[in-house]
Amino acid sequence: MNPVNYLYLASLLFAIGATGVLIRRNAIVVFMCIELMLNACNLALVAFSRMHGNLDGQIIAFFTMVVAAAEVVVGLAIIVSLFRSRHSASVDDASLMKL
Amino acid sequence: MSASAVHSLWTMAADPIDKIDAPKIEYGQLSPMLIVIGAAVIGVLIEAFVPRKTRYHVQLFVSVVALVAAFAAVVGLAARGFGTTKAHIAAMGAIAVDGPALFLQGTILLAGLVAIFTFAERRLDPEAHGNRVDSFAAQAGSVPGSEGERAATKAGFTTTEVFPLALFAIGGMLVFPAANDLLTLFIALEVFSLPLYLLCALARRKRLMSQEAAVKYFLLGAFASAFTLFGIALLYGYAGSVSYATIANVVEGNVKTIDPALADTMGNDALLLIGVAMVVMGLLFKVGAVPFHMWTPDVYQGAPTPVTGFMAAATKVAAFGALLRLLYVVLPGLRWDWRPVMWGVAIVTMLVGAIVAITQTDIKRLLAYSSIAHAGFILAGVIATTPDGVSSVLFYLAAYSFVTIGAFAVVTLVRDAGGEATHLSKWAGLGRRSPLVAAVFAVFLLAFAGIPLTSGFTGKFAVFKAAADGGAGALVVIGVLSSAIAAFFYIRVIVLMFFSEPKADGPTVAVPSPLTMTAIGVGVAVTLVLGVAPQYFLDLAGQAGVFVR
């Protein structure tokens, strides 16, 4: 199969993730959509790696996984502390600071 | 038949595996980053093993020693000529050791040191149960207003984790402007962003606001870095490598033989343009340029004020350093494409920052919009695409970072019963009540406005001159106009402080420890020295303005 198809799939996943970030209201779901975007990046990197015949892309994909894991640690800590003090994880409710 | 002979029926000897060469790492040249990140790791161990009562002092000591040692290492490298003649690429092509990198690392380290002083301030809040407290939550995990929070406060807990977190952030920021391939760029971006998200959530007062700021910063920051990463993937597809030099070669069309099997990807301009747009978008998010500025006011307002000062100064330095290197080292061959876009971004950034700031009523939000306007001024220098452009941006960043930390340090001093009194109406008549604090703040505001004899004037003059010489005259006109608009609201705050009657229930000005005094004093000193006698520092920035490729 032509590896370019994987790029189309990666772009599609990335677009789905970005749309989710923009339209979903629950912080956890927004965060999952961001993780989907990161995974789309991984797919694109691995596909390009296959096309170019070098390993750089696959190595970057490993780094991305580590970064995504670190982001989960930090992000969930912040979102859970927000949820515990407000009893809501909605990003619309968090609006103390508006002009 | 012997065993080995049977085996040889269906196996054969493979070629001996080639030796894998160990990578050559120039530890000496990477020492500034290694020292800071090493100290951050030690800081984590201190949290684990040192008794709670002494942690604050040990952490502060380790942080200050590490930052001073790293700064000495930067100066040593610069003195040995790594900033000019011996500039080269270290760590197997991952890190550039050259003039802009060393200059910005020095700036980040000094700004970080001053910021650490404001982090460590413990005399502003009244003592809680006989324990001195700083600006950070007693226990970040406790729910605001709960029994657990009261117990933590009573027990005298403090969040000393802020010191290693700040060191990790500084470590990432040191790598960011020196990153010489896209992978290092991305990892450095995450290494300095993740601790900043956490630091934002740790305010002692107004904790709901602080947590809200952290969530907003985190979600938007992670969103932006996902875009950066997809851009990196596309650029990798375009050039087949993430190294800056290789990508620059492909951009300039120096690679003659393109494998026919790669005709779809290698050298495909769609990949290049979309990839560059996405990577630059991530960097512009970090510098807070319009239209990626939405997070700035909320995060600056909600974060603990020492963190705001640190973030406003050091993040901007690091992110502009990375942006400069990307545009000047990787993409000079594409400048006819990125310059018009950056023109637009610079113009809207300057105008939106200056105009929206007029309507603000909170001093921290006001400074946030002012920082957006300043991002626009610095972008004008970036657009110049001349050696002068680089050195003017370096100078502007150094001047701006100390003013910012000083200004936010002054904001921490003006307090009422609810903590910091950040509403502008509370600042009315401050000049009558405490002339010194108001005068210092006025100096910082004049520097932001770019009045002569302050560092702000020298910096603005340098970037606008570079932009005009680089053929961006119209941009300079708009820059001067928006400086005039911005001067209006800076002067308005000065008038409010000195020429209106203090209110009866106005805020008090806390007397800080020598730590915050040092931060403010350094801010004033740098502002005046760079304003009155800038030549030495302009020369320094001029010498440092050459990238290695």
UniProtKB/TrEMBL annotation, chain A:
Taxonomic superkingdom: Bacteria
Gene3D superfamilies in UniProt: 1.10.287.3510
Name of the top EC class for this enzyme: translocase
Catalytic activity line of the entry: a quinone + NADH + 5 H(+)(in) = a quinol + NAD(+) + 4 H(+)(out)
Record's keyword annotation contains S-adenosyl-L-methionine: no
Membrane topology: Multi-pass membrane protein
InterPro entries: NADH_UbQ_OxRdtase_chain4L/K (IPR001133), NUOK/Mnh_C1-like (IPR039428)
Keyword Transmembrane helix recorded: yes
Entry keyword set: Cell membrane, Membrane, NAD, Oxidoreductase, Quinone, Translocase, Transmembrane, Transmembrane helix, Transport
Membrane-spanning intervals of the chain: 6-23, 28-48, 60-83
Any one GO molecular function term: NADH dehydrogenase (quinone) (non-electrogenic) activity
GO cellular component terms given for this protein: NADH dehydrogenase complex; plasma membrane
EC number: 7.1.1.-
GO BP terms: ATP synthesis coupled electron transport
Localization: Cell membrane; Membrane
Record-linked HAMAP family: NDH1_NuoK (MF_01456)
Homology family: Belongs to the complex I subunit 4L family.
Biological role stated in the UniProt entry: NDH-1 shuttles electrons from NADH, via FMN and iron-sulfur (Fe-S) centers, to quinones in the respiratory chain. The immediate electron acceptor for the enzyme in this species is believed to be a menaquinone. Couples the redox reaction to proton translocation (for every two electrons transferred, four hydrogen ions are translocated across the cytoplasmic membrane), and thus conserves the redox energy in a proton gradient.
UniProt subunit comment: NDH-1 is composed of 14 different subunits. Subunits NuoA, H, J, K, L, M, N constitute the membrane sector of the complex.
The protein's name: NADH-quinone oxidoreductase subunit K
From TrEMBL, chain B:
Cell compartments where the protein resides: Cell membrane; Endomembrane system; Membrane
Domain NADH:quinone oxidoreductase/Mrp antiporter transmembrane: from-to ranges: 179-485
Pfam families referenced in this protein's UniProt entry, alphabetically: Proton_antipo_M
Transmembrane segments: 30-49, 61-82, 102-120, 162-179, 185-203, 215-239, 270-295, 307-328, 340-359, 366-387, 393-414, 435-454, 474-499, 511-533
Record EC number: 7.1.1.-
InterPro entries: NADH-Q_OxRdtase_suN/2, ND/Mrp_TM
UniProt topology in membrane: Multi-pass membrane protein
Class of enzymatic activity (EC top level): translocase
NCBIfam families xref list: NDH_I_N, PRK05777.1-4
Family statement: Belongs to the complex I subunit 2 family.
Entry protein name: NADH-quinone oxidoreductase subunit N
